[in-house]
Amino acid sequence: MTQEEILRRGEVASFLLSEGAFTGFLVEMKTDLLTCIGNTQPDDQKLRTSLYYQHRGLVDLEATMNEYISAAQEIIRKAEQDAATAADTLDD
């Protein structure tokens, strides 16, 4: 993945996670899935497993989006640091 792609993904992820409707949806879905897990019968392993993996998918999606944001921020920080170093070198 190129730096441009990482920056774009970070930008999209940041936008989505800053939107109250999207984050609210994620919270509601995760809460609903946990409620459903709690309401299943202990011997209904197939349903419990399915619900668990749906919840895990949402948690992983959110974590991946945060990783994209962090990676993009690191690229930006490094570019700013390199620019500052180059400017200092020109001043000397």
Strand-helix topology:
Layout: H1 3-18, H2 20-39, H3 45-91
Tell me what the structure shows.
With 92 residues, this protein is an all-alpha fold. Helices cover 90% and strands 0% of the residues. It is built from three helices and no strands. Helix 2 (20-39) packs antiparallel against helix 3 (45-91). The model has no long low-confidence stretch (mean pLDDT 94).
Using only CA atoms, what is the Rg? 20 Å
Count of separate DSSP helical elements = 3
Q: Overall mean pLDDT score?
A: 94
Strand elements, count: 0
Give the helix level as a range of percent.
over 70%
User: What's the shape?
Assistant: elongated
Report the order of strands and helices. HHH
Which structural class fits the helix and strand makeup? mainly alpha
Could you list the spans in which at least 5 consecutive residues all have pLDDT below 50? none
Q: What's the main sheet like?
A: none
Bin the strand percentage: under 5%
Write a brief structural summary:
With 92 residues, this protein is mostly helical.
Structure keywords:
92 residues, mainly alpha, 3 helices, 90% helix, elongated
